[in-house]
Design brief:
Length: 357
């Protein structure tokens, strides 16, 4: 038996509505730099700096959309790129005190040419922090792997050597210059060679089990590249000071133009699978009448007043409408289709005040 057919009018309405929703989703995803909604199998671990930013956001701190206070650097997009390198076989370790070698590789193709790179920091997580020192002292060596333009064997340029008192915690390297070079076409990537050596100091008289330390490092080592960029189009020079807001209408004038609460839950949109934080936000909206007699007291512009005046003379002129007059930004932390974790600030997302316009 065939299922009952929908009424033709309802069917014709449903198809354009579905396309409209898909179009709106597409526009929003394009603003995030995504071609489609991400479908990550699992969310990547968050670096400590992102955890700190999320705590500040939950505490109600409103960041400057073009400045990241936790890093003390200008920028409006923060990306955490996962390491796509590999560990060579243990037979290839040349030195007796060599504990670990790894090729680190990061895909920089998500960085747009119009974006100005202001920070690139390599983070190495060596294991969880403990309250007492465990394991021997380490030496970390980092080299830049360079591919010759005409082909041939790659070369390594030493960038830094750093002593680490014990195999735990986070270690950071500034790679801004190397990342700027790596974002240029046709490279669009950066490869690094990491080597960890175990220091053996006979004066200390303490023997640590080197094999245990190296095996623990191989299990716990996590590398990521934190990149901050500034988009000049989204961070224009400061505009002139906004006109001061007038008092909002009293609750008794509920039909007049004012702000209404609207909470957008990302789970309702199916975006909770790739948006890490926030779970949603209070977007609000503007609704209400803009009568001519009260237009000047509803935070309106001079043009809105004149339009309302003309509407009383000629009904063919549309009346002034209730619109947002003050908006504020939000920050979103999400994961894209390449498993990059991105923190981005978005202007004009929350309606703070309404008026007639």
């Amino acid at each position: 038996m065939l299922p009952p057919l929908l009424p033709l009018g309802l069917l014709l309405f449903a198809v354009p509505w579905s396309r409209a929703v898909q179009f709106q989703d597409s526009v929003f995803l394009q603003s995030l730099g995504l071609g489609r909604a991400p479908t990550p199998a699992r969310l990547q671990p968050l670096p400590p700096v992102l955890r700190k930013m999320l705590r500040e956001q939950e505490a109600g701190a409103t960041p400057d959309t073009c400045y990241i206070p936790a890093l003390r650097v200008r920028g409006n997009v923060l990306r955490v790129l996962p390491d796509r390198g590999f560990l060579p076989s243990s037979e290839n370790l040349p030195q007796a005190n060599s504990c670990l070698q790894k090729l680190l590789h990061f895909n920089l193709s998500t960085i747009k040419e119009t974006e100005q790179l202001t920070m690139a920091q390599l983070g190495l997580h060596l294991g969880p922090n403990t309250y007492y020192p465990v394991g021997p002292e380490l030496e970390l060596g980092l080299s830049l792997v360079q591919e010759p333009p005409g082909g041939g064997p790659s070369t390594a340029k030493t960038l830094a050597w750093k002593s680490v008192p014990r195999p735990q915690g986070e270690i950071y390297f500034n790679l801004l210059r190397e990342a700027k070079h790596g974002t240029r076409a046709p490279l669009r990537n950066i490869s690094l060679f990491l080597q960890i050596l175990v220091r053996k100091d006979a004066d200390e008289g303490v023997e640590f089990p080197t094999d245990d330390t190296c095996e623990r490092l191989k299990r716990s080592l996590h590398a990521y590249l934190l990149m901050v960029v500034l988009n000049p189009e989204q961070c224009p020079p400061p505009s002139r000071k906004r006109r001061g807001a007038l008092p909002a209408p009293q609750a008794s004038c509920k039909n007049l133009c004012h702000r209404h609460q609207l909470f957008i839950n990302f789970r309702d949109l199916g975006w909770h699978k790739w948006i890490i934080a926030p779970k949603g936000f209070m977007a609000n909206y503007c609704h209400g009448n803009c009568p001519f007699s009260l237009t000047t007291s509803l935070n309106s512009s001079n043009y809105a007043f004149m339009q309302a005046l003309m509407h009383t003379v000629d009904p063919a002129v549309p009346p002034a409408v209730c619109i947002p007059t003050k908006l504020s930004p939000i920050s979103m932390l999400y994961q894209d289709n390449d498993d990059n974790v991105i923190l981005r600030h978005y202007e004009n997302m929350v309606v703070d005040e309404c008026g007639c316009g």
